[in-house]
Amino acid sequence: MGADEQPSPTRKRDREEEGEDLSDGGAAEKRPRAEGASLLGLATYEDEDEDEAARGHANGRRAVEPDEEEDDDEEDDVRRAPERRPRQAELRRDCPYLDTVNRQVLDFDFEKFCSISLSNLNVYACLVCGKYFQGRGLKSHAYTHSLEAGHHVFINLQTEKAYCLPDGYEINDPSLEDIRHVLNPRFTKEQVLNLDKNKQWSRALDGSNYLPGMVGLNNIKETDFVNVTIQSLMRVTPLRNFFLIPENYQHRKSPLVHRFGELTRKIWHARNFKGQVSPHEFLQAVMKASDKRFQIGVQSDPVEFMSWLLNTLHAKLKSSKKKNRSIIHDCFQGELEVVKEVHRKHIMEKREDGDEPNGEAGSVVGTADGIVTETSKVPFLMLGLDLPPPPLFKDAMEKNIIPQVPLFNILKKFDGETVTEVVRPSIARMRYRVTRLPKYLILHMRRFTKNNFFVEKNPTLVNFPVKNLELKDYIPLPKPKENHKLRSKYDLIANIVHDGKPGEGCYRVFVQRKSEEAWYEMQDLHVTETLPQMVALSETYMQIYEQHE
């Protein structure tokens, strides 16, 4: 027998029957082969050939002999090509592996990427260990995992269909419905309308209770500024109701809109497996949409983030350029009348630099003493309030008294008479008057001032009412149209607070639960009930007020 030849299985069997001792002979046969040639493939036994042939016939192609297979590689590739078409999986209800499904390890909050190939196409979740794998074909990562780990039940994260691998049949069993609801929470219009009447607690898998809509958000790394913003916006009923029903924005292409909608549905879902949500996918969409202006691991300002988020969502949701309307503007947009007094020489300097005056609709009036007055109407989504400067010196008790100021004092900025001096973009005197109030009024206190060296924080406490903020008593408001009532009363629904030093510290938020009119303090994963009196005792940074109906 030559060095490159291999004993056929039939000859081996004949020699065994004749009683030959093959142990040494086998070794003798192996030695010259090791010296003369590289290792060849294992011998193919007849019964394996029969299995291969049967498999070939089952797949609609003829069985191929091993020798022929080596010669006709190209033909074989052509014959295999049709196999890659999507095949109709068998539908079965009697899967024996359903008891291996482990709901404790399932977490659909993270990005839907295969844990091996990092691809987001055709991803399946293993319902036994919770990992994500791509595909379910013979050479796919999910198929390999099912053989290596002995995990057999998988769910497609896109279509929500469950499959048993390596057998390949689709599982049709109602016991997996709760997993589908966690993967993609759904709400009917009736459920959405009744959300604020629901007083029922939900139970997580670990036995802990949670309130739908009052769940903690995971702080991935210095992302508390995102968490407090999301928790505040979840109290804005029309915005929440809009995002709870995906049909409202299904034709929008922006990933940010869809991720925000998913996060809204997860926060308000009553059948979650755990009492908290991780905003991981939303944060990835934020990083991409903001060109890493806001990112994981870098502390940012919730006022900046709120402003960016509302403007970006509006731009992605608006119906058309002419109408320029969206759910964001319906909820938050008001209008200011701005009277700007600029000295004529500043205008001339500006024009020499190539800057033209603002393009807002308005009028320009010149006066004798060289001061030019510009009046314009400007839309706003939030109003910034200036705090009085804190005292520089300690008092007799050798302590810095933390000053307090009523909200009504700092609201005088918008009475149309109080002058605010601005330096940028040019020195001017400004007067502001509210001409249209929004349904939801966002106020932010300018606590942080930046100079060339460092950021300073103003510790002044603001005294504000939690209920019945009546604006018409403090700022002049436009007269309502005929048959319309002036709605100027507001209730607080969210209050964001900053604790600690500027540039460091952390953010927490007080929010109201409408069904019981109770207040909750939220800081990342911690959710605790608190008294309404406690809400007003902290260094408030941003507030959302809701207009009385």
Structural write-up:
Residues about 1-5 and about 15-75 have low confidence and may be disordered. The protein is built from 17 helices and 27 strands. The longest helix has 16 residues, at about 300-315. It is an alpha+beta fold. Among the domains are: about 90-180, Zinc/RING finger domain, C3HC4 (zinc finger) (Herpes Virus-1); about 180-325, Cathepsin B, Chain A (Alpha-Beta Complex), CATH 3.90.70.10. It starts with 8 loop residues before the first helix and ends with a strand. The chain is elongated, with a radius of gyration of 34 Å. Strands 14, 18, 22, 23, 24, 25, 26 and 27 form an 8-stranded mixed beta sheet that branches. Strands 1-6-5-4-2-3 form a 6-stranded mixed beta sheet, with helices on one face. One of its GO terms (cellular component) is spliceosomal complex. This is USP domain-containing protein. Belongs to the peptidase C19 family. It holds the Pfam family UCH.
